[in-house]
Amino acid sequence: MNGYQLTFYTEKNRKHGHQTVCEWLLHEVPKLGIRGATVINCAEGIGHAGAHHAAHVLKLTDQPVQIILAVTEEEAERLLDLVRTEQVHVFYMRFPIEFGLIGEDIPHKPSKHFSLFGRSTG
Questions:
Q1: Around 25, how many Cα atoms within 13 Å sit in the side-chain half-sphere?
Q2: Is 122 part of a structural domain of the chain?
Q3: Which phi and psi angles does 55 have, rounded to 5°?
Q4: 89 neighbors 83 (Cβ within 8 angstroms)
């Protein structure tokens, strides 16, 4: 399948309304029919205005974050239109890509983690 990789760059503490930009994007993406997103917390970076952003031991709020999505052209346009309409302050990049799935779906296995009450959490 051909489409785009959309990558949004923000900081962990940057807000849109009462949510962080990352939380807002992850909340809106499924509403647009987009089935996946990956969030990467970065060690440090330099923003578009030249400011140095980094995760510090005592303060992680300035930590750079990437939100990466593989989307069709239509999904990319819907998401970028929404970001523009909502006036979200965020830097993005869009690259043409080919994407798809290889291999069979692996059946979901129950979690082997247990809660304090002895029930499986899966």
A1: 33
A2: no
A3: -85, 125
A4: no
CB 84 within 8 A of CB 92: no
Q: How many domains does the chain have?
A: 1
Structural domain contains residue 26: yes
β-strand 91-98 against 2-11: which pairing, if any? antiparallel
Give the C-alpha separation, 20 to 28, whole Å.
12
Domain that holds residue 14: 2-98
pLDDT in tens, 8-51: 999 888 889 999 999 999 999 999 999 889 998 875 656 665 65
Specify if 85 maps to a domain.
yes
**Placement of tokens 């302050």 in the chain:** 89
Give the predicted TM-score (pTM) of the model.
Answer: 0.75
Domain at 83, CATH number: 3.30.70.120
